[in-house]
Amino acid sequence: MSSSIEVAPGADDRLFVMFHGYGNDEREMIRVIDAIYAGTGSLPSYLSLRGTYDRAFMGGAYWYPDGCGVEERRRECSAVGDAVVSLLDSPMYASRRRILIGFSQGGYLSYRMAVEHPETFDAAILMSPSFKGEKTTDLSAFDSPTRFLLLYGSDDRTIPAADQDTARHVLAASGRAEYREYAGMAHSINDQEINDIRMFLGLENNTTHPGQAPLV
User: Rounded CA gap, 124 and 42, in Å?
Assistant: First the structure.
C-alpha cells in the first residue's frame, strides 16, 4: 500500500481508497488521483492498495484469480474489503469522508465493498468495472448514503456489453447512481473521464456533464 494523508488546516477532508486494475500496481491509481486534483489548488489524501496476487514473470498484480467463479470472486473481494474496513477503523480516519475508486477489477472490488459495507463509504467511483455474475444483485432496498459514479468507454470490449448493461441496471436500482460513457474509448481512461470525476466530487464549479447518459 502507498498512502498520502494531508493534515494541514483546511485540507480536503476526503480519503480516497483506491484499487488498480489487472496487471497493474498501486501507482496506477495514484496517477489517476493526481490527474483529478491537478489544478485544483488542493492535494488528495489516499490509500492506494496493491492486488493480493502477483503476476508471475510479467509484474503487476490482481485481486482475484483468472477464471474464478462468481462466489470465489466475491469471497476474494470480501476478504480484502473486511481488511480495509478494519484498517479504516482508526482515529486517524474518523473525520474523513471515505471514497472508493477503482479501475476494472479494482472497480468491481470497490462496488463489492460498497455493497458489503453500506455505512462506510460516501461514494464509489467505478471506472470500467468488471461485473460478471452480478445479475442477481438487487440494490432496490440498498439503505446506504453511498453515491455511485459508473464510467465506461463505448468501445470497451474487455468488459462484455452484457456485463456493462448489468452494471447499469444493478446500480440504477440503488437510486443513487450516475453514469457516463465516452465515445470511441476502449478499456482505458481519458481526459473527459477525469474531468467528470472531478465534477462528481465537486472540485469544479462547472455543473455540465458532456459525457452523461441515462443510467437505463
Answer: 20
The set of cell numbers assigned to 196 is 467528470
Cell of 14: 476526503
Total residue length of the chain: 216
Task: Please say whether the beta carbons of 42 and 8 come within 8 A.
Answer: no
For 155-187, letters b (16+ CB in 10 Å) and e give ebeebeeebbebbbbbbbbbebbbbbbbeebeb
Q: Which contiguous run of DSSP H or E holds residue 47?
A: strand 45-49
Per-residue pLDDT tens digits of the chain, which is 216 residues long: 999 999 888 788 999 999 999 999 999 999 999 999 999 989 999 999 999 999 999 999 999 988 889 999 999 999 999 999 999 999 989 889 999 999 999 999 999 999 999 999 999 999 999 998 887 778 888 899 999 999 999 999 999 999 999 999 999 999 999 999 999 999 999 999 999 999 999 997 433 344 444 343
- Burial of 120-131, coded b for 16+ CB within 10 Å and e otherwise, reads bbbbbbbbbbbb
CA torsion, ordered 132, 123, 209, 48, to nearest 10 deg: -80
Whole-angstrom distance, CA of residue 172 vs CA of residue 5: 33
First vs last Cα of the chain: how many Å apart? Answer: 36
Distance between CA 62 and CA 46 in Å, rounded? 19
Q: % helix / strand / coil in the chain, to the nearest 5?
A: 30, 20, 50
